[in-house]
Design brief:
Layout: H1 2-40, H2 46-67, H3 77-100, H4 103-111, H5 113-125, E1 127-129, H6 131-148, H7 156-182, H8 187-214, H9 225-251, H10 254-276, H11 283-304, E2 309-311, E3 315-316, E4 327-328, H12 331-337
Antiparallel strand pairs: 1-2, 3-4
Helix pairs in contact: 1-9, 1-10, 2-8, 2-9, 3-7, 3-8, 4-6, 5-7, 5-10, 6-10, 6-11, 7-9, 8-9, 10-11
């Protein structure tokens, strides 16, 4: 039994690392491509671009369904509606938060998604965190804050936008994990349900939202061959980004996804250093990067230990319990009834 158990554990570890590297590579790649598209070619219509991303993802799911990789599955419309609402509010909220707030406050808002995700897991899934797991999360937050937070200024409407963005993003990521477990959906299955709804809603509302944010009309944009190339490249990479997010949250949890997700922030800073020079790279940034990486390694080790991150267990004790007797409910039994 030991070799079989070890083999399964090794296989899971390899798949976990592969899923995470898939997410990191596509996420960092799309950031670099979008930066080129928006900063160099002036395509500032972020919400419409996200709608195009989900449009391409929808085409991918249709092709996979035709090939038989996505099976027929059921997701109740109320659940689908709640997910799409949270996901779309997340996209628009993040764009508005970035526009109305300083970069420093925007980064603080993104960091606050970890404690919000922890709160959702504690409230809905009865998750309990060990002291080491909590401390490792704190170290990650401190490290990324040192790296990215500079000036911090906020106004009333910017604060409201940040709150909406943080809570909707945390809820969307929580739903990804919860819906996959609740309805026994694979990442492909869930994406097959959600991508068409998000594509349709964002392509309809995106031009209006972008006009509100930028005072520019997307249909008046002067398209060129280079801008179309980067747009198609962005949509192609987004297919992998969307799929890898569902895979990672399905395999891990929303909190783990957020904690390890800050590795992407560190990688973007490192890539920016090599691609765009030493501007912005100083001792403070390096110290923050090292601290964040230490915290991520610590979190991975602490959360994987027994008691590091688990559902709360309960025991039933009666006054008539005699020596050697009692009723204990194991975690697995509790989970099946919750």
């Amino acid at each position: 039994m030991a070799p079989i158990s070890s083999s399964k554990s090794d296989r899971k570890a390899v798949l976990d690392v592969g899923a995470w590297m898939f997410n990191v590579s596509t996420s960092v790649g799309i950031i670099m491509v979008n930066k080129q598209l928006m900063a160099v070619h002036g395509f500032s219509f972020a919400t419409t671009l996200t709608g195009l991303h989900f449009g391409m993802t929808t085409l991918m799911t249709l092709a996979l369904r035709w090939l038989g990789y996505i099976q027929r599955s059921h997701l109740p419309f109320p659940e689908l509606f709640k997910f799409a609402l949270c996901a779309n509010f997340s996209i628009v909220g993040m764009n508005v938060s970035l526009m109305w707030n300083s970069v420093g406050f925007y980064q603080i808002a993104k960091l606050s998604m970890i404690p919000v995700s922890c709160f959702l897991e504690v409230m809905f899934d009865k998750i309990r965190y060990s002291r080491d797991t909590k401390l490792s999360i704190l170290i990650v937050l401190m490290g990324v804050a040192i790296c990215t937070v500079t000036d911090v200024s906020v106004n009333g409407k910017g604060f409201i936008a940040a709150v909406i963005a943080v809570w909707s993003t945390a809820l969307q990521q929580y739903y990804v994990h919860a819906l996959q477990k609740r309805y026994s959906l694979s990442s492909f299955d869930l994406l097959g349900h959600t991508a068409p709804v998000q594509a349709a809603s964002l392509l309809l509302t995106g031009p209006l939202v972008d006009y509100w944010l930028t005072s520019k009309k997307v249909y008046e944009y002067d398209f060129s061959i280079p801008s179309l190339f980067f747009m198609v490249l962005s949509c192609s990479i987004a297919v992998g980004t969307n799929l890898s997010q569902f895979i990672c949250i399905g395999r891990f949890t929303a909190v783990s996804f957020q904690v390890l997700g800050h590795m992407k922030t560190v990688l973007v800073l490192i890539l920016g250093f090599f691609l765009f020079g030493k501007e912005g790279m100083n001792l403070q940034v390096v110290l923050g990067m090292v601290l964040a990486i230490v915290g991520m390694i610590w979190y991975g080790n602490a959360s994987s230990k027994p008691g590091g991150k688990e559902r709360r267990s309960y025991s039933l004790v009666t006054d008539r319990t005699q020596k050697g007797q009692g009723i204990v409910l194991e975690d697995g039994n509790i989970d099946s009834k919750v």
